[in-house]
Amino acid sequence: MVDWHRVALRGTPTEGNDMLRWWAAKESGEEGPSKAVSSPGYIPWGNGARINPFTFGLLGALGVLVALLIGAIIGQLGTVLVYVGVALFLSLGLDPVVSRIERRLPRPAAVAVVVGGVLLAFAGVLLAIVPVLVQQITNLVENAPQMVDDIVHSDWYAWLTGQLGTDFDSAISGALDFLQDPTNLGEIGGGIVAVGAGIAGGVTGVIIVLILTLYFMASMRAMKRLAVRFVPAYHRPRFRELLEDVSGAVGRYVIGQVSLALCNGVLSLVFLSIIDAPLPALLALIAFVGSLIPLVGTLSASIIITAVCLVNSPMTALTAGIYYLVYMQIEAYVLSPRIMSRAVAVPGSLVVIAAVGGGALGGILGALVAIPVAASVIIIVQKVVFPAQDMKRLPPGERPLAAETGAAEPADGLPSPGAPSAEA
User: Are 352 and 295 in contact, with CB atoms under 8 Å apart?
Assistant: First the structure.
């Protein structure tokens, strides 16, 4: 007689069909598989019912349709999901600051202090940048005719006209005629309206993200407790620890990246003011925002700032370019290792791969989020995957036998001290 309990435990390839028949026989209360259960063309399914191929195909097609519907819904809600993701990312980044302030104040007061500080910093940037931009745009509009006249009568314009012939002169004349024609004001106005709508949409998005960040920071602990409730009770302590590690890694990364950007912004403001660069506050803001982007952000901001300094004089641009070359070396070999090594432990190769992959998938936002996501994956692998693999010390075929005899799996494949040897 076949030992059906042993067959169900071991499940060897030669006894696979017997195992399936054993489960069907178990449901019917028989000692072994009956002929009706083991007859050809009869596939056990739960209590031994036959699977209808049409029903199976219909359920599969419905599953595909549901997946397509979910994908379409996610595509329509893409902007909303981006807002939620950015707000959650910022709230995790500001949560360590809130926790530190919470040692002296209640959590609502700590959240209010952090949000107030962020709003004050944002308002300060606007007060420093907007008046300068308005003044420069006003000067540009007032001096536009004189600037065009100066360009037309300049030496380099005459040289380009001599090199390119009448084609260059005709192109410039056509552009000027287009701008001066009143019938084209509608097209120009439509472009201006589109730009204004884009700016308004961006401002609305910033406001939504700030509001969501405020709510997420205020309810961060409740959100973590709710997430833990979805896990079985015997896994909750481990899951809670893992959740704290992941959120801590994201928070440390955000604080470290903002610290690097703040260093670049402050030093840029001081240096650009010393060399008398145009719009030093705006250029320092560009340096700050650029440093928030991993890998290419500082370089891109440095190129933009150097090009703007070229408007003032070639010497100013050369000085700014040399300064940023030196600063990028200091940031790469001194500032970034000291700050980011405490923030998030990700190997340099994975940082490059994560930043490039995140940028390819989600642009600037993807590049910003990619590195803390990589750090979170590393934490999960180190604390979940590796321990699970370390517990598997016997081949799969030998584990049920050890469970039957009640013997523990030996460590590192070595026999346990009390186990009899093969020679005995």
Answer: yes
Neighbours of 67 (CB within 10 A): 10
- 258-287 pLDDT, tens digit per residue, is 888 889 988 998 998 898 888 788 888 888
Indicate the helix (H) or strand (E) that contains 99. Answer: helix 78-101
**Measured between alpha carbons, how far apart are the two ends of the chain, in Å?**
31
CA geometry: angle 142, 148, 154, nearest 5 deg? 135
Residue 306 to residue 317: CA distance in whole angstroms: 5
CA–CA dist 59, 42 (Å, integer): 20
Side-chain half-sphere CA neighbours of 112 within 13 A: 5
Structure tokens at 325: 């070359």
Output the DSSP codes for 211-273: HHHHHHHHTHHHHHHHHHHTS-GGGHHHHHHHHHHHHHHHHHHHHHHHHHHHHHHHHHHHHHH
Q: What is d(CA 271, CA 284) in angstroms, rounded to the nearest whole number?
A: 9
- Rounded Cα distance between 118 and 205, Å, is 16
Of the candidates 237, 253, 254, the one whose C-alpha atom is nearest the C-alpha of residue 383 is 237
CB 18 within 8 A of CB 38: no
Q: So what's the pLDDT on residue 82?
A: 82
Using alpha carbons, list the distances in angstroms from residue 104 to 100, 118, 348, 391.
Answer: 8, 19, 38, 44
Provide the pLDDT confidence category of residue 156 given band limits of 50, 70 and 90: low
- Whether 216 and 97 have beta carbons less than 8 Å apart is answered as no
Residue 51: how many CB atoms within 10 A of its CB?
A: 11
| Pick from 256, 259, 255: nearest CA to 93 | 255
Mean pLDDT of 91-116: 84
In angstroms, the CA 41 to CA 44 distance is: 10
CB 119 within 8 A of CB 211: no
Closest to 309 in 3D by CA, of 282, 281, 278:
278
In degrees and rounded to multiples of 5, residue 422 shows phi and psi of -70, -30
Closest CA to 356 of 278, 272, 415, 293: 293
Q: For 166-176, how does the pLDDT look when each residue is reduced to its tens digit (9 = 90+)?
A: 555 566 666 66
| Ordered DSSP codes for 41-87 | T----TTTPPPPHHHHHHHHHHHHHHHHHHHHHHHHTHHHHHHHHHH
Rounded CA-CA distance 402/394 in Å is 9
Contact at 8 Å (CB) between 275 and 255?
no
